[in-house]
């Protein structure tokens, strides 16, 4: 997950205080222009939930690469507040089957 993914995630991760985390995450998700082409596939849906943000991406990338690249990118680019809330990436193959589910939180990044 490179520049375009980082830009999309940075949009969602920009927030100033703990009291505005939910509002910032929700408005960030709502402002995404979907579908959005990423290095790992096509972001087709994003939603805010009480547990954090969930992304739905259609991809042809292998599961191991998705897990490693997604975790490294999110840990490097998401604000600690967003990670504390939780971010889940759901990767589907072209047939619509779930091939990888990557959950990232602050403890995943060693914080």
Give an overview in words.
Keywords: Signal. The structure is a single chain. By secondary structure, this protein is an alpha+beta fold. It has one domain: GMP Synthetase, Chain A, domain 3, CATH 3.30.300. The chain is 38% helix and 29% strand. The chain is built from four helices and five strands; from the N terminus they run ααβββααββ. It has a five-stranded mixed β-sheet. A hairpin with a 5-residue loop joins strand 4 (87-92) and strand 5. The longest helix has 15 residues, at 63-77. The chain is globular and about 35 Å long. Mean pLDDT is 79; it is low at 14-19.
CATH class: Alpha Beta
Q: What integer is the average pLDDT?
A: 79
Domain module tally: 1
Give the % helix.
25-40%
Question: What is the CATH fold-level name?
Answer: GMP Synthetase, Chain A, domain 3
Instruction: Give the tally of β-strands.
Output: 5
Beta percentage is 25-35%
List the helices and strands and how they pair.
Elements: H1 3-13, H2 21-30, E1 36-38, E2 41-49, E3 52-58, H3 63-77, H4 80-85, E4 87-92, E5 98-104
Parallel strand pairs: 3-4
Antiparallel strand pairs: 1-2, 2-3, 4-5
Question: Nutshell version of this structure?
Answer:
The protein has 111 residues and is of the alpha+beta class. The protein has helices at 3-13, 21-30, 63-77, 80-85; strands spanning 36-38, 41-49, 52-58, 87-92, 98-104.
Task: Label this structure with key terms.
111 residues; alpha+beta; GMP Synthetase, Chain A, domain 3
């Amino acid at each position: 997950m490179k520049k375009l993914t980082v830009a999309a995630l940075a949009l969602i991760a920009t927030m100033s205080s703990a009291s505005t985390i939910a509002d910032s995450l929700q408005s960030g998700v709502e402002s995404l222009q979907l579908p959005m082409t990423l290095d790992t596939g096509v972001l087709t849906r994003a939603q805010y939930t009480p547990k954090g943000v969930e992304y739905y991406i259609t991809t042809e990338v292998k599961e191991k690469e998705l897990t490693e690249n997604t975790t490294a990118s999110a840990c490097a680019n998401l604000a600690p507040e967003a990670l504390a809330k939780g971010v889940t990436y759901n990767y589907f193959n072209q047939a619509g089957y779930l091939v990888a589910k990557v959950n990232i939180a602050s403890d995943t990044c060693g914080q």
